[in-house]
Amino acid sequence: MKISTLSIGDELICGQVTDTNAGTIASLLLVEGVRVQRHITVGDNEPDIIGALSELGRVSDAVIVTGGLGPTADDVTSLAAARATGRRLVINEDARAHVRRMSGKLNNLIVSPLNDKQAMIPAKSALIPNPTGTACGFQLMQNGCHMFFMPGVPSEMIVMLRETVLPFILERVPLKRVIRSISLNLFGPCEAEVDELLRGIAQPEQGLTLGICVTFPWMKVTLRSEADNADAVAGLLQPAAETVRERLKEYCFSTGDVSMDDTVAELFLTSSLTLSLAESCSGGLIAKRITDVPGSSRYFSEGAVTYSNEAKIRLLGVPAELLNTHGAVSSECASAMAEGIRLASGSNLGLAVTGIAGPDGGSEEKPVGTVFISLAAPDGCRTKRFRFGGSRDEVRTLTAWTAIDWLRRYLLKQDILFNVNN
Amino acid sequence: MKISTLSIGDELICGQVTDTNAGTIASLLLVEGVRVQRHITVGDNEPDIIGALSELGRVSDAVIVTGGLGPTADDVTSLAAARATGRRLVINEDARAHVRRMSGKLNNLIVSPLNDKQAMIPAKSALIPNPTGTACGFQLMQNGCHMFFMPGVPSEMIVMLRETVLPFILERVPLKRVIRSISLNLFGPCEAEVDELLRGIAQPEQGLTLGICVTFPWMKVTLRSEADNADAVAGLLQPAAETVRERLKEYCFSTGDVSMDDTVAELFLTSSLTLSLAESCSGGLIAKRITDVPGSSRYFSEGAVTYSNEAKIRLLGVPAELLNTHGAVSSECASAMAEGIRLASGSNLGLAVTGIAGPDGGSEEKPVGTVFISLAAPDGCRTKRFRFGGSRDEVRTLTAWTAIDWLRRYLLKQDILFNVNN
Known about the structure:
Two copies of one chain form a homodimer.
Chain A (H helix, E strand, L loop, with lengths): L2 E6 L1 H4 L7 H11 L4 E7 L3 H14 L2 E5 L10 H8 L4 E3 L1 H15 L12 E3 L3 E3 L8 E6 L2 E6 L3 H18 L6 E9 L4 H7 L10 E8 L2 E10 L2 H19 L3 E4 L4 H12 L3 E5 L5 H8 L7 E7 L2 H8 L3 H7 L4 H15 L3 E7 L14 E8 L2 E8 L4 H20 L11
Parallel strand pairs in A: 1-2, 1-3, 3-8, 13-14, 13-15
Antiparallel strand pairs in A: 4-5, 6-7, 7-8, 9-11, 9-12, 10-11, 15-16, 16-17
C-alpha cells in the first residue's frame, strides 16, 4: 500500500513554522509496519493544493492531508479538495452541530457564523470525528485512492489519526511486513562513545538496523528489525537489545517513550522518599520538571528558587560568612543549600544547584558554565563541580538533566559522581 | 520564478528526524522576496528520488535538493540525480581532492576508499563548494530547470546555500518583487475573535495578506505585503500595521521574534521594580520562564514552589486556619501567598498562583483547571479565579502565560482583570 502525506499551510511552506505532523504520521505508521513513501508541503493556495492532491492521488493508495481546515478565509483545503475531486462543497449537518457545540464549549461565546464554514465538506465524504477541537475532518475515495483530511493542530490531528485514520488504513494493508523496534534512552555519554560501545551490533543484511538520534542533551538508540513474521523479528531483536542494554549500563535511563522525568517519578513513588529543591542558576527549571509529572505532590514538598544571596540566607540558612568567603557559586554553598532545604523542609532528600548560566557573570576561576550540584541525603551529602558548555539555555538544561539524573542514580543506588561528557 | 525544495532521507520520511532544511531555505528565500511553492520529502530510495525530481523539474524553474550525499551505501542522491537527468556518474577531480583534504582534517584518519564515492557527480554538473564538510554539492540544468544538490547536514547546507545557491538564483529572478512582513504576537483572545477584529484589513488583490498562526497558547498575526518596490510595499504595510495594532490593543505583547518573557524582562528593567514568586500548581514554571532571560537577577529575587500546605505556612506565612477554612486552592490562599512572598522577600511585587492542574484532584466546586492568580503590589492586591481547559500541561502553560501577562499589563498600567478566552 503506497501512502503519502500532504501538509498544507503558508506558515509551513514559508518556513515560519516547522511541520511535525508528517513525522508523527510516518512514525505511527512505521510502528505498524507501513512506510510513508512521499511527503509534500504546499501553502494555503488552491491551485497548489489541487496540484499536490492530483499528483499524490495518482501515485498513492492513500493520502493523509493535514492543515487548512480552520474557520478563517485563508484556510482553503476543503474547497481545494472539492475542486480536485470534482465535487461540490456541501454543508454537513453533523459537522455543523459539532462545530457549534465545540465553539461554545471552547469560547463561552455566541457562535460566529464564520464557524459554519468548518461544516462545509466535499459531497460524498465521510466525517472524521475530532473529539478535541472544532474542525471535523473528512475522508473520500477518488480514483481508487483514499484521501483523509485532518486539521493541522497536532494535538487534534493525532487523536483523529489514532481513532479513525490508522484503523481504516491498517485494515486494508495486504501482506504486512512485521517491523518492530526497541528504543533505549541515554544520558551522559557523547555520540562517538556510544557509537564505539555499540559497534558490531547492527546486521543490516539480516534486517537488523541500529540508529542513534541525538536530541540535546540526551540520545535515543533505536534497534529496528524487519521480517516476514513476528517470531523472526523477535529472534533478531531481543538478543540485540540485551547486548545494547549490557553495554550501555547506567547511561540508559528508560526505554521507549518514557522520559527521564517519568522514570524518576516512578522511582520516587516506589521508594517513598520525599524531595525538596534549592535552585539558583536553574531558576525553577528542576521544580518545573519534577512537577510536570502528575502525582508529584506525593513526594515533592517544596522548592526554593534562591536567586539572591538574601534568599539563600533566609530560606536555606546558608551562613552569610560562607557566602562572603566562598561565594554563591561554590561547593560549600551548594552543600549548604542542599543541607539547608533538607533540614527546613523535613524532606528525605535535598537537591541543590548553584552556578553561572551566563552569558555574563563568569570569571577566570569560575567561567560561565561552572555549576555545583549537591544532594543531601540521610547517608550524607555529595557535591560535585561541573563545567557545562553552550548557551545560557544549554547550561541550564544540562544542569537540570544532570541533577535529575543524580536523583535517578541515587534511587537506584548507582554511582553518582560519574562523568558527564556533554 | 517557481522554486521547489526536495529533502531526501530515510530518517526524514520515517519521522525519526524532523526536517529543518526546507524551512531554512524557504525563509531565507522569502526575505529576498522569493517564495517556495512546493516541498517534497522522500526516503533514500532511487525510484522515489527520480520520481520527485522529475515531477518537481516539470513544474519548477529551480529545485533545491538536500540530503543523501554521504559516503555510505544508503546515500543514493547522486546516482538518482544522474539517472533522472539521463547522465553518467563521473569522478570529479576537484571534488576528490576536496573530499580527501576534508576527510583527513575531520577524522585524522587514513582516507577510506568509501570517500571517493562522494567525488562521483553527474556529468555536466558544476560543483557547489562545501567549506565546512566533506560532501561537495553540485548543480545542473535539465529541461530549463536549475537543480541544486546539497548535503543534508544543516550547518553545512546553510553555508553552501548562502554562498552559492542563493546568489545564483537571485541573479536570475526576473523582476524581483519586494516582500516585507510585520508580525504581531497576541495573548488572550481566541482565533475567531481575532479574525473578527481584523476583518477587512487584508487586501489580497493589492498584495496585502494577513495570516493568523496559533501556537498554543498565543498567536502570531502576520501582515505581508508584496509589490514591485520598497515604497509601494511600505505604503501598503505601514497603515495596515497601525490599524491592526489599534484593533488588537492590549492583546499584543510584542512584534517579530520578541517573546512574552523578553517583553516582561524589558519592562522590569526599565521600571526598576523587583519581583518574587509563590507557585503552587505551576510548580516552578513561572520562575523558570522569568529566569530564562539573561539579566533577570536584576529584578527577580526569589521564588517559592510551595506544593505542600506546610511550605505555604512556613515560607509564605499563609495562616493554617485560612487553609483549613478555604482550602489551598482559593482566592483567599492566592492573595495570602502573594502578600506573603512580597512581605518575606521585600520585593515590590509578589505574584502567586494556586490551582488544580490535574489530571486528579478536582471536585464539583473546584474542577480540574481551576486556578487563582494573585498579584500583590504597593497599590494593593488583585486576585482572580480562572477556569482553564485542557491537559495538566496545558493548564500549567495557561497559568504561567496568564500570570506573566498580568506582570506585563501591570507594568504597562493596563487592565489586568480582563478575560482570557483560551
